[in-house]
Design goal:
The chain has 2 helices and 4 strands. The protein has one domain: Alpha-Beta Plaits, CATH 3.30.70. By secondary structure, the chain is α+β, with helices and mostly antiparallel strands.
């Protein structure tokens, strides 16, 4: 049965477009290799943070919707945790 997932990413608001696209490309490549499809990518823009991250009060947010069979996201989570360009990430099972 095909499942839906939502991935939210938090980046430095000043991260160069080329660097951000590189991270998104890594995610898309990983997803494809796991049989997932990136259905939608949304730039949610710059938002104020409740607490500072890396000395900044604002960050850039992105949202990706993925579909596919049940997948273990541990590998992706480790990759994103190791990537200094990604400040935070959250993977959710989507109900949308």
């Amino acid at each position: 049965m095909e499942k839906k997932y939502e991935l939210v990413l938090v980046f430095d608001k000043d991260l160069q477009k080329k660097e951000r696209e590189a991270v998104l490309g890594i995610i898309e490549g990983w997803s494809k290799g796991k049989g997932l499809t990136v259905k939608e990518k949304n730039d949610l823009g710059v938002k104020s943070l409740v607490y500072e991250m890396k000395g900044k009060k604002e960050a850039g947010f992105w949202q990706l919707f993925l579909t596919g069979e049940v997948v273990c996201f541990d590998e992706l989570s480790v990759m994103l945790n190791r990537d200094e360009r990604v400040w935070r990430h959250l993977i959710l099972k989507s109900t949308v």
